[in-house]
3-dehydroquinate synthase
Amino acid sequence: MCALLTSAASHFQLWLDVRRGGSTDMASGLFDRLLVADSQASPATEPRPPTVRLTAEGRLMENDRCAGACCRIDSPEEQNAALALVGSVEWLLVEGSRAPMITAENLLGAAEATPTRIAVAIHSAADVGGLAFALERGVDALVCDALLLEGRGGGAITEALQICKAQRLERGSSSAFPAAQRNEGAGIELRAARIKGVVPGGTADRVALDFTRLMSDDEGCLVGSSAKALALVHAETVESGFVPPRPFRVNAGPVHSYVLMADESSKYLSELKAGDTVLGVSRDGSTRPAVVGRCKVEPRPVVRVDFELSEASETAHVFLQQAETVRLATPVGCAALPVTAAARDGAILVRTTTAGTHVGKAIGARVVEH
C-alpha cells in the first residue's frame, strides 16, 4: 500500500498531463505538477514543477515514493473500487469517468476528514468550475491533458483553469475547509427540543424496522426528515392492551426519512434492507448496533411533528405514523410520549449536528433541508 506523505502541500493544484505528448511551456507558470508515464523521461523544461509518474499498475510515483493511485471509473463497480482506497492513499487520481461531477462528489464525501486527496482529469472548460467547487470544497487537483491546451478549446480551458486557481487561492487551502463533525465514542449526545406543532401529514409509505434482537424499554432509533436533526423514536415495547407489544420493532416513519446507521452515517428508510445495521440508541445516549431482520412498508396515515431546539430558532420535523404505539423519547421522566398525544411546547429528545450529508456521509459543505 502506498505510504502517506505527511509534509505534502495542501493547497489546490493543477497538474499537466504530458503522457500523450504536448508542450510543457506553460508548466512552470500555471501548473504545479507534471504527470508522465513511467517509461517517459522527465521533460527538460526548466524550471519545471515536480514530476509524478503513473506506472502500468496504476500507481502514482513521486521519485521512488508511492504517492497514490489512479483509477478509471466508468461503472459503479469501478467507483466502489476507488472508494475502497480512500483513507489508505495520499492521492487518488480519477480518469475517464462518464459522470465526473457525481463521481467527484461521491469521492469527496468519502474522503472528508481522511488524508486522501482527490485529483480528477478534465475534458473541457465546462468541467473546471464544477469540479473545482464540488460540494463547496472542490477536488484537490485538476489534471489537464497537454494536448487539450493545443486544440480548438485550449484557450478557454487555460482561462478557466487560471480563474478557478485564483478563486481557490482566495478561499484558502482545501485543508481550511471544516471537517464534518462526527460523534465519537460509545455514546450519542441527545438534546431537548421543543415541539412547535403537530399537523396531519396525509397517507405515506411507512417503514417499520424489525430487528433481529429485542430492544429495551428506553431504546429506539434516530429518524427524521433532516440528517441534521433526528428524533429518538422508541421501540414498541410498551403494553397498550389493544395490540401486543413488538419489542423488536421501531415504527420509523415514511420512506423519505433518514435513519442513523451504526457507523453514524445516514440512510433513507427506503434504502434499508435485511442485514443492514442501524444504531440503537437509549435515552441516556448509550448505543449499540441493531441488525435489521425485515423492513415492512405499508401505507399508513402520518402526522408531522415540528420541533425547535431550546437554545436556537432552527426548526426541523419528523413524520411518524398516527398511532398510539409510536412513541417519542422525552428528556424528563421515564414515560415515552405517544405521537398521538404530542402537542405544542412538549419536549422530545433529538440528536443534532451541523454537518450535512452526501450519500449518507457527513460533509463540511452547507446543506439546507426544510
User: Anything to note?
Assistant: Residues 154-171 form the longest helix (18 residues). The first strand starts at residue 13 and ends at 17. The CA atoms of residues 15 and 85 lie 21 Å apart. Confidence is low (pLDDT under 50) at residues 3-9, 173-185.
